Amino acid sequence: MAAGDVQIPKMTDGYLGPQAKFEAYGLSLVSHGEPVISMQDDQREVEIILGTQPGTRVTVKLISYERKKECNEYCLLRALGSNFLFLIRPPLPGFYKFQIYALPKDEAGPQMLGVYNYLIYCPGNFGSNPFPKQYPPWKDGCYLEEPIDLPRGIRDPSVKFKVCIPKAKEVQVKVGDVWNPLQLIEPGVFEGFVDFSINYAPGSTAKLNVKFTGSNFSTLLEYPL
């Protein structure tokens, strides 16, 4: 089997494609119906879309085949309705195993089961540009419209943030020690502009903090600056 003109590595029998619980969990492939994905030379990202049943919990692993190393920071997980979208940005050329895990809402966890495995071939080298760190609550039906990343050393005085967090009561972006509230523009959707021209300390981060109940905030996303 080949990805374009490149011979793909031999996988364990049954590894690629749907696993035992894929159909039982009511999952479907919305975008890529074949388990081997070959990116183009000038293609920086690929987005895989998985259809699920309402309330299904999902997580993923992205693993460099050649380096035998997890690189999950190069996958952005987002949810739109009952679909999960996985935006993948390989940091280096080569093959990547992309493993999807799921668990229906009516099954006890916390261990999710592997439901589908892809093998992605990336021929291009676009450098290391990871997505923001995603904390567990982010995977509960949230969607990031912008920004999907922030350049290191950014000093832009007006960066637009727009997110959909269905259960949120309040959303703020904390840059260093400065809190920036986002405005609720429609149910579950928050938007606003954040000033990055402030003199934040080296090693600072921008955190998307969300209040669900009570007075405490939870961090859902964290951007290195």
TrEMBL record:
UniProt xrefs under InterPro entries: Ig-like_KY (IPR056564), Transglut-like_Superfamily_Mod (IPR053041)
Domain KY-like immunoglobulin-like: 20-124
Coiled coil: none
Domain of life: Eukaryota
Name of the featured protein: KY-like immunoglobulin-like domain-containing protein
Lineage of producing organism: Eukaryota, Metazoa, Spiralia, Lophotrochozoa, Mollusca
Name of the gene: ORF163223
